[in-house]
Design a protein that fits this description.
By secondary structure, this protein is of the alpha/beta class. The chain folds into 2 domains: 184 residues, 3-Layer(aba) Sandwich (Isopropylmalate Dehydrogenase); 125 residues, Isopropylmalate Dehydrogenase. Helix content is 39%, strand content 22%. It is built from 11 helices and 12 strands. Strands 2-1-3-12-11-4-5-10-8-9 form a 10-stranded mixed beta sheet, with helices on both faces. α1 packs parallel to α11, α7 packs parallel to α8 and α9 runs antiparallel to α10. It starts with a strand and ends with a helix. 45% of the residues are buried. The structure holds 3-isopropylmalic acid and magnesium ion. Magnesium ion binds next to α8.
């Protein structure tokens, strides 16, 4: 029996509700198997930890995570702590520390979900957004001078490296190649940003030569938002910079029905470090502690986690269980207009797994 060590970092807000729900579902999967089991290792890092210790996670936190097979992360964000501190002190520290340079965000309209694009059937919206996750607009390069004076200046420099762009392009082309349509859209803004984005385009073209069977096109990020709404079926795999993909992936999640469903993986494709999986919805303080949070984003993230560690068949089982549950509107949480709570959805998914 193989044991997988999974780090669980609920973090803040509804992360503390959805991550235990994710563990329950993973444990239910393992209970049916004689081949694998999970050891969960919980870390209480986040806003409360910051109030006690003055940091979001301990200085040697990455060392504790390093031996894990994967990380399940809830969210970081606290109404009383500036957002850039919670983000840079925990989530980005792990993403950048473990060089999880590929952020992968699948979007589909799951059965039973009422999505806003009435002209589009669920089969026509099946996207994966690949987000550059290590540099670009999130490089953290910049500064402030003359603080508080009229001449104050502040910069955030978007920094792109040839290696950084090459590796994310290669990852995206490879992913596109593995999907039935072999279709990749490279999102850019090289009309206005005439240095880094021009290099981004050039490198896309260079890497495309390694993947002659992948059809690819280029789209400006602003035009891409309109295309997602007007011609969703014309997209399949999409690669974009850190900030562009951040914005496009929220639009994608909303077009698929709710931010509460959307999953993500922060992946180190070279497997030097553990990868980290999380729902993209954030801490949602307005509904925390009430049992209202939609756990589906976490469950789908668990599917990605299972695929990443090589448990392909259990990943498929879990996805089928999720889809059986979303198909029933009585099992929808409030964000989807339904009456169910976190616990009820979790139980329903476990029940589906049990029946299989
Ligand atoms: C996301 C989130 C984060 C980001 C926030 C919490 C800083 O919006 O994962 O998309 O912008 O990276
Ligand atoms: Mg975002």
């Amino acid at each position: 029996m193989k044991t997988y060590n999974i780090a669980c970092i609920p973090g803040d807000g509804i992360g503390q509700e959805v991550i235990p729900a994710g563990q329950t579902v993973l444990a239910a999967l393992a209970a049916k198997s004689t081949e694998f089991r999970f050891d969960f290792h919980s870390f209480d890092w986040g806003g409360d930890y910051y109030r006690r210790h003055g940091v979001m996670m301990p200085a040697d936190g990455l060392d504790a995570l390093r031996p894990m097979d994967a990380i399940l992360f809830g969210s970081a964000g606290d109404p009383d702590i500036p957002d850039h501190i919670t983000l840079w002190g925990l989530r980005l520290k792990i993403c950048q520390g473990f060089d999880q340079y590929a952020n992968v965000r699948p979007t589909r309209i799951l059965p039973g979900i009422d999505a806003p694009l009435k002209r589009c059937t669920p089969a026509q919206l099946d996207w994966v957004i690949v987000r550059e996750n290590s540099e670009g607009e999130y490089a953290g390069v910049g500064g402030r001078a003359h603080q508080g004076h009229p001449i104050e200046v502040a910069t955030d420099v978007s920094m792109m490296t040839r290696v950084g762009v090459q590796r994310i392009m290669r990852y995206a082309f490879k992913l596109a190649q593995s999907r039935p349509r072999k279709l990749l859209t490279v999102v850019t803004k090289s009309n206005a940003q005439r240095h880094a984005m021009v290099m981004w385009d050039e490198i896309a073209k260079e890497i495309s030569a390694e993947f002659p069977d992948v059809h690819w096109d280029k789209e400006l990020v602003d035009a891409c938002t309109a295309r997602m709404v007007n011609r969703p079926a014309s997209l399949d795999t999409v690669v974009a910079t850190n900030l562009h993909a951040d914005i496009l992936s929220d639009l994608a999640a909303a077009l698929a029905g709710s931010l509460g469903i959307a999953p993500t993986g922060n992946i180190d494709p070279e497997r030097r470090y553990p990868s980290m999986f999380e729902p993209i919805h954030g801490s949602a303080f307005d509904i925390m502690g009430q049992g209202l949070a939609n756990p589906i984003g976490t469950f789908w993230s668990c599917v990605m986690l299972l695929e990443h560690i090589g448990l392909t068949a259990p990943a498929k089982q879990l996805m089928q269980a999720i889809e059986a549950v979303t198909a029933d509107p009585q099992l929808h949480t409030r964000d989807l207009g339904g009456p169910a709570g976190t616990a009820q959805v979790t139980e329903a998914v476990c029940q589906q797994l049990h029946n299989k």
